[in-house]
Amino acid sequence: MNLTTLIFYLKAHGLNWGTREHRRTSVIAFQEAFTWWDLKVDGIPGAETLKAFKHGAKFGHRISPHFKISEFRCACGGKYGHHRNEVHVHRDLVRVLERVRARHYPHGLGITNGWRCAGYNRAVHGIAGSAHTVGRAADIPRRAAPKTFTGLGAHGIGYKASHGLVTHVDVATNLPTDHIFREDY
Fold first, then answer.
1. Where is the Peptidase M15A C-terminal domain (predicted)?
2. Where are the domains of the chain?
3. For residue 160, what pLDDT is reported?
4. Which residues pair with 170 in a beta bridge?
5. Cβ–Cβ under 8 Å, residues 100 and 112
6. Best CA proximity match to 53, nearest among 69, 74, 77
7. pLDDT for the residue 91
8. Which one of 39, 54, 135, 137 has the lowest number of neighbouring Cβ atoms within 10 Å?
9. Which one is the CATH code of 71-185: 3.40.1440, 1.10.287, 1.10.40, 3.30.1380?
10. What is the pLDDT of residue 136?
11. What pLDDT score was predicted for residue 24?
12. How far is CA 37 from the centre of its chain?
């Protein structure tokens, strides 16, 4: 794909396009997040990636039926040194969130916290090595009890003791599927 086309699609997805390295990182982020089919994650904006950009464009530049990659941006807005349009989210997480949405949030599921840069993760007292820092976790509005989240493909299902409702879903590979834990920090 030519540079003009690449920049158009990166901008449409709210991704960083300023330098060659930013474009490469953004293409990798898009390839990792895209869920309509599994794209090869190589940072090369080739024919399959162009096809994926065009497919997402038919659906409001989404990476899945209901989510845009920009919804997973770090909440710090670039305060801790990364570019404000940098984002990381793994397609496995997005696929789980689609199932969570179908079961618990039929009228829409907003991501309250997705990817976190290392600085923001420290600022919010997140655990070192948090699944948020590698795009494998999302915080969501509280709605339902933890047991109702089992069977959706999540590895970590975090709830707050104060209300007993799920506020965190992750696909961290170091956890077994459907691992329910109390998340009070």
1. 65-142
2. 1-63, 71-185
3. 93
4. 137, 156
5. no
6. 69
7. 98
8. 54
9. 3.30.1380
10. 97
11. 95
12. 16
Contact 106, 60 (CB under 8 A): no
pLDDT in tens, 104-116: 999 999 999 999 9
Task: Name residues whose C-beta falls within 8 Å of residue 129's C-beta, 6 or more positions apart in sequence.
Answer: none
- Measure CA 27 to chain center: 14
- Half-sphere exposure of residue 68: CA atoms within 13 angstroms, side-chain side: 17
The token pair that represents 101 in the structure block? 């949405």
Q: What is the dihedral sign for C-alpha 50, 14, 29, 178?
A: negative
Phi and psi for 118 in degrees, rounded to 5? -60, -40
User: For residue 123, which amino acid is it?
Assistant: A
So what's the pLDDT on residue 75? 94
Low-confidence ranges of the chain (pLDDT < 70): 185
Q: What is the model's pLDDT at position 185?
A: 57
Q: Which helix (H) or strand (E) holds 103?
A: helix 91-104
Contact yes or no for 73/85 (Cβ under 8 A) = yes
